[in-house]
Amino acid sequence: MNISSIAILFGSIITGNILLSYYLGMCSFLSISRELKSAIGLGVAVTFVMAITTPLNWIVYNIILVPLNITYLRFIVFIMVIAGIVQILEMIIERFSQTLYYSLGIFLPLITVNCAILGVNLFMIIRQYSFINSIFYGIGSGIGWLLAITLLAAIKQKISKNILPKGVEGAAISLIISGIMAIAFMGFSGIIPIN
Fold first, then answer.
1. Is 89 helix (H, G, I), strand (E, B) or coil?
2. What is the pTM of this model?
3. pLDDT tens string 97-128
4. In the chain, which end has fewer C-beta atoms inside a 10 angstrom radius, N or C?
5. What whole-number distance in Å separates Cα of residue 51 and Cα of residue 40?
């Protein structure tokens, strides 16, 4: 079945959300979502990395690895490409926004090993997307990750002034909110096909 690029874009944002459907990238999602500004900053950084690395890794895979019959190296090569892009992004953020750079802390270089980014790059290969579809899938997955972390940070900021029972403070409330958000996003299943 041939799926249009627009369907892939919206499907990867909503029903196939890499974070809320596949639970990839949860560590930085739960850690950085305390403050809305930091969450948006990390979300934009992850979106940028996904949007750049997905088509770049499509080219590397289809132009280099497949013709040389060394597709078994895709994990190592994909991580190297992701690490290079993250390093460039880290230098740019440090140069232009010291506040964001320090608020993201260790999670900025850890974007390199964010399983959501590697997952998107691998799903693109598994689903045999074309180059154009890979671009839309990378952008959509990044926007979906940004949307999820922004929503979680906004909800946590809104309820931060409320008194919560001891058992649901901290990570527990984040997981509860994430579960409810995942159910809400999955409510659109069937409307937009993703695979």
1. helix
2. 0.87
3. 888 788 777 777 778 778 899 999 999 999 99
4. N
5. 16
